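Chain and backbone:
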Amino acid sequence: MDIDMLVKLTTRAWSLRILALMHRGTPGRQATLLAACGAGRTSFSHSLAHLEKLRLLERNPGHGHPLRPEFRLTTEGAAMARLADRIEAASPGTEEAALLRRAWTVPVLAVSREPRHFSQIKGQLGGITDRALSQSLKTLTAADWLERWVNPAGHPPRPVYRAANAGAEISRAVLRVTG
């Protein structure tokens, strides 16, 4: 899996959570997944449709009601579900689960395994705007998932970022599955 797929996957808030739940054996029925997920109905249905569009989930033929279908993981979806489960396992608690639902959290951590400058992170993530990256870096630094320091030897001095603590665990989880 490349970084572009990780970016696409995390654009919907509940995508990782849905995949992780299905990896752990939660049945693919909407009501069961919704109850286990804790999401609102609208954002949950958008995440399901997004996963289906990415071909990570498919409707289980012959099961479920046409308005409430049952879903199952595709082959690629099973691999992504393992990744989602490892990412969730690396997250320390429920407060941090909200941080995982943010669109750029996991991709930023994935490319920040090693020390990187702002421009290097932006270059690896492609479609991220300066504002979105700046906000993500601030949020992850405040949550202590990212370290930030300034190298005074460089001219001009520029901040350097690297995944730390739970962020480093999430980054390693992504590396183990993708690398």
